[in-house]
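User: Sequence in, structure out. Go.
Assistant: Echoing your sequence, followed by the C-alpha cells.
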Amino acid sequence: MTWQLSLIIPVLNEATGIVPALQALQALRTECQLIVVDGGSQDDTVALAMPWVDCVLKSARGRAVQMNHGAATAHAPILVFLHSDTHLPKEAVPYIQRALAKNYQWGRCDVAFDSPKFIFKIIATMMNFRSYVTGIATGDQAMFMTRAAYEAVDGFPVLALMEDIAMSARLKKVSRPYCLKVKVTTSARRWLTHGIIKTILLMWWLRLRFFLGTHPDQLAALYYSRD
C-alpha cells in the first residue's frame, strides 16, 4: 500500500485512552500509515492498540527515542508526529500536503484544547501566537515534515525533555515552518490535574531554564516529579 503520510504516535501506559484516540484516526487510514511506538508500557496499551494501527513497535523509553524508532519504520514521504492525546482531523491531511509542496519542509498545526473552559482558549491562542512568532513548535501541535528534512537534521535529538523545541531549532535551519491554521485538539487533563496556573508557570520556567542551558535530564526530573 502507498501511504501519503506516516503518523507516528509515541505511547507509554495509555491503556485508559488509547482505543478512543486511535478510533478517532481511523478515517485517515486510506491515506495515512498509523504507527504506535511503545516505550515499555506496564499496562495493556500494546494489545489495545494493535487492532487500530498498521504497526506497533517497541523501543526504549523516551519520546524522542520512540519517535525516531517510528520514523525509521515509516514508509510515507511525509512524517507526522502525534501525541496519543492529540487528535488530527481528516481535513488536515490535504493542507499538510499542500504546505510541503511549496517551499516549506516542515510545520505544525494550530492547537485547541478539549475543555470548554475559556482559559484554555486563551492558552491555545497564546501557544499558537508564540509559535508563529518564534518558529518553535511543541509536540502538542502535531509537527509534520518531509522525510528529507527529518533526515537532514538527523531526527529528534535524544533528550529527556524539550525534544520538540530542540527539533524545531534544527529544522529552522532547513526552512521556516508552515503554521497551519487547521486545529488539532489536545487533552487538557494534565493542566486540570496539576493546576492550570501552576502548569503555565512551570512550563515557562522549564523553557527559560532550557534556553539558559540547564540539562534536559534535570528539567525532566522537575516536570515528571508531579506525576
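User: And one key feature?
Assistant: Strands lie at 5-11, 32-38, 55-58, 78-81, 86-87, 106-113, 143-146, 178-186.
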